[in-house]
Hints:
Domain HTH araC/xylS-type: 176-278
Distance between the termini: 33 Å
InterPro entries: Homeodomain-like_sf (IPR009057), HTH_AraC (IPR018060), Tscrpt_reg_AraC-type_HTH (IPR020449)
Pfam family, one: HTH_18
Strand order of the largest sheet: 1-7-2-5-8
Number of helices: 13
Keywords: DNA-binding, Transcription, Transcription regulation
Low-confidence stretches: none
Organism: Chryseobacterium gambrini
Amino acid sequence: MSVLEKFGVEIFTQHNIFERISVDKPFRPDNPAFIFVKTGSIKLKQHFRDLELSANMFMVTDPQTVYEMISISDDFQSRMVSYKREFISALSLKFNRLITYRYFRQQMNIGVPFEPDELEVVWKSVNFLKYILDSETEMTYKKEIVEHLFSVFCYQMAGIISKEDSNSMSQMSRQEEIVFIFLNDLAQNHTHERSVEFYAQRQSITTRHLSAVVKEITGKSASQIVSLIVMNEAKVLLNSSNKPVSEISGILGFSDPYSFSHFFKKHLGESPSQYRNQFEN
């Protein structure tokens, strides 16, 4: 049983992270996580734009999002706190709301800056939690100790996030809310719905209004974002599984492999098989 399965939380260093992630290869996290950068920088492609994290910054990742690592500096030093969603559900709703809001804001912006002294405190908490998780010493109440240390970490983060977001934390603008709901609906339905009309109807607004709002907030049209999400999903399936292209086309809701290949080639300039082959050589 993995540490994550046993205790509900696991801590990774930059070394562990890159055993799992390689440059230019899209990936989807198995669980939500906080990523902290102490030194150096990392550049990721996230949804519809690049996201650069440098020293004294953090971000929240989510299993609904596909990421792609573009580059990393030699002096990169990081911690990733990965956790089971149900492990956090017993904590206050205020905290969950903060994380949801911060996750949305990050889709629009760069990572969140820390004050260096704030990061230092969180870094020590994370390292101590990792020390307990990794310890082979017999501990009668190890699970309870982990739960309490993770709670301490969560409240540290809640305090930092609420201060950083100040008064704007409590509510999104109506436009932000429309885009937030659109992205969530898209994450759950893109394997069988690719029409902007479907997503507009979900919010009882016109296609024109949805498209205009999405364009204003993200800089890309709603149809472009739909295509990006489907393409990201296709890339993950092609490079992380041995499923035949015909099966992947069905998973993504295409009527036949030809339609899928046409869609893929239109957006990437190469066929699904050609894309897959570059990772096999």
